[in-house]
Each structure stands twice: as C-alpha cells, then as structure tokens.
C-alpha cells in the first residue's frame, strides 16, 4: 500500500501527539496541526509537517489552512478530527457562554475542518474521515452534560455525513474512547465549574474529587487506541480482512456502559412496545 497522507487536529498532546508518532512509525506522511505551533515543533524534528490550526477560527481561515495542507504532499488521504476539550459543570452552573464555547470547539470547529477537506475528498472519490467521539457520545454523566451534548451532536452529524458521502467513495470512522490516559482531565485542558448551588454541592464536590483522582490514572493506553485506529483505516493488524464498522467503542468501561444502555433501550422497547407502536392516526 502506498504511504497515506494524514492530517490531524490537536497534536500538542494526548491522542493527537500519539497519532503523529504512530503514523510516522508505519511509514506514512503526517501533517500535524495545533493552535500553538511552538507546541508541536518537536514533531517536525521527527519528520511531520506542521501547520497552525485553531479549529474555532473562521471558515475562510480554516479553508486556507487546509488548502496549504493539501499543497504539501499534493493530497490528504485521511483527516483525523481529534481536537476537543471537556467542560465540566451542571446545566445550571454553566453560563450560556460556557455551552457555546464547548460546542464551538467540539462540534462547530469539527464541522468547519470537515467542510474544508470534503471537496478534496469528493474530487478524488476517496479519503477517510476519522472523528474522535467518546463514551460521552452514548452516555450523559452528571456534571458532564455540555461535553456529552457535544459528542452526542457529533455522533448524529457524522452518522448522517456517512450516509451522504459513503456512496461517493469516502470512508468514515467514529472512534469512541472510554477513559484514556491523556491530558483531557489535566488542569490546563479541562474546564470545570464547581457548583454554587447547594442542591448540587455533594454531587459536584464528589465529581471534582473523582476527576482529580482520575487524571493521569485512566486505565486506557492512548498508544493502543491509536494503533487500532490506524489498523482500521489501513485494513491492517486487527482489521485485516474484516468489515470495518462506522462506530468503534474502545475500552472496557466503554464496552460495559454501551452494553447497559443498549440493553436498557431494548427492555423499554419490549416492555412498552404496545404503547410505543400504537401512535399512528386511525385510518
Ligand atoms: N482521553 C480520554 O479519556 C478521552 C475519552 C473520550 C474522548 N476523548 C477525545 O479524544 C480527543 C483528544 O483528546 P485527548 O484525550 O488527547 O485530550 P488532550 O490531551 O487534552 O488533547 C486535546 C487536544 O485538543 C487540542 N485543542 C483543544 N481546542 C482546540 C482548538 N480550538 N483548536 C485546535 N486544537 C484544540 C488541544 O490543544 P491545546 O494544547 O492548544 O489546548 C490538545 O492538543 C478529544 O476529541 C476528546 O474529546 C478523549
């Protein structure tokens, strides 16, 4: 297989940084992007091309950056929409602006980057779009509504996008990590608003303590997740000879919580089936 050209958002840390290492190790080309270029200078030393890209920039500015990216190797084969952050806080404690910022990065930023790359993929009738979603794209945990909302939104948008673009020869993959050891929950990256509302005080303080304990103690290995994602895109390793699903949950926690949610949903459909199905207008 000829080397692929990958474009990754959010390479200054976590999965993004690991993608660059793993892609180069497999002999592919990578254009690493980050909103602060100096934070990925070390990746250039390793052989990556680097570009500044804040996914909350205007559509025209992102279009220009993607055009520059395509011109580096003459094409992009795989886009990895990885950049995001997590906003913690209850619905009442978060300000409207907090909600907008969460969606501006995790949803609208991702849409803008994808819109910029899609004409190139359509023109070539090929290409692969990887979206780093989350267990939070399936389950809304307490004080996690903004983040879960952004990932639920992404799931629906990408499911529709897959239906629109699969017939054009473009592949789509939703990676759904459970808890992996990156800097997502570290103080510089995570935004958290402890509750000021007495009714939520106990839950909120337990949540903050739990997240502090979880930071850098998550069970998931980012390298394993990235290597599996590369296998899925390239049809190698664990993916060799297998049909690739749209969604790939990863991690024991993710597998268990998804199963519980699916079983609960099936139980409701069964127990309430006669009510659920008896809603048509009488003919
Ligand atoms: N780790 C987990 O347990 C987990 C679980 C489920 C899903 N995820 C998802 O995995 C993806 C990567 O996160 P991570 O776990 O690797 O966390 P991370 O270590 O905090 O990395 C997040 C990256 O996103 C970048 N970023 C944030 N806002 C950006 C913007 N506006 N423009 C460009 N880059 C931006 C950050 O760059 P700066 O350095 O500039 O802030 C950073 O490089 C995210 O989509 C996250 O939601 C992670």
UniProtKB/TrEMBL annotation:
SUPFAM superfamilies: NAD(P)-binding Rossmann-fold domains. Signal peptide: none annotated. GO terms for molecular function: oxidoreductase activity. Transmembrane segments: none annotated. InterPro entries: NAD(P)-bd_dom_sf, SDR_fam, SDR_oxidoreductase. It holds the Pfam family adh_short. It comes from the Eukaryota. Keywords: Oxidoreductase. PANTHER family: SHORT CHAIN DEHYDROGENASE, SHORT-CHAIN DEHYDROGENASE_REDUCTASE FAMILY PROTEIN. Belongs to the short-chain dehydrogenases/reductases (SDR) family. This is NAD(P)-binding protein.
């Amino acid at each position: 297989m000829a080397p692929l050209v990958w474009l990754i958002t959010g390479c200054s840390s976590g999965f993004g940084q690991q993608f660059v290492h793993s892609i180069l190790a497999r002999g592919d080309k990578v254009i690493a992007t980050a909103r602060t270029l100096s934070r990925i200078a070390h990746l250039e030393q390793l052989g990556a091309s680097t570009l500044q890209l804040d996914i909350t920039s205007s559509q025209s500015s992102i279009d220009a950056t993607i055009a520059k990216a395509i011109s580096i190797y003459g094409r992009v084969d795989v886009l990895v929409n990885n950049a995001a952050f997590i906003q913690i806080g209850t619905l009442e404690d978060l300000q409207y602006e907090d909600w907008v910022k969460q969606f501006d990065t995790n949803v609208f930023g991702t849409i803008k980057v994808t819109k910029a790359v899609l004409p190139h993929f359509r023109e070539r009738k090929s290409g692969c779009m990887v979206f780093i979603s989350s267990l939070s794209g399936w389950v809304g945990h307490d004080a996690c509504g903004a983040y879960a909302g952004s990932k639920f939104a992404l799931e629906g948008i990408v499911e529709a996008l897959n239906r629109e673009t699969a017939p054009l020869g473009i592949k789509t993959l939703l990676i759904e990590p459970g808890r992996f050891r990156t800097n997502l929950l570290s103080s510089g990256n995570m935004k958290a608003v402890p509750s000021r509302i007495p009714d939520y005080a106990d839950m909120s303080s337990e949540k903050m303590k739990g997240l502090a304990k979880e930071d850098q103690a998550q069970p998931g290995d980012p390298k394993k997740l990235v290597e599996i994602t590369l296998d899925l895109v390239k049809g190698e390793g664990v993916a060799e000879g297998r049909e690739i699903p749209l969604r790939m949950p990863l991690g024991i926690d993710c597998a268990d919580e998804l199963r519980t949610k699916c079983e609960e949903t099936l139980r409701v459909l069964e127990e309430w089936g006669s009510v659920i199905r008896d809603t048509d207008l009488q003919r």
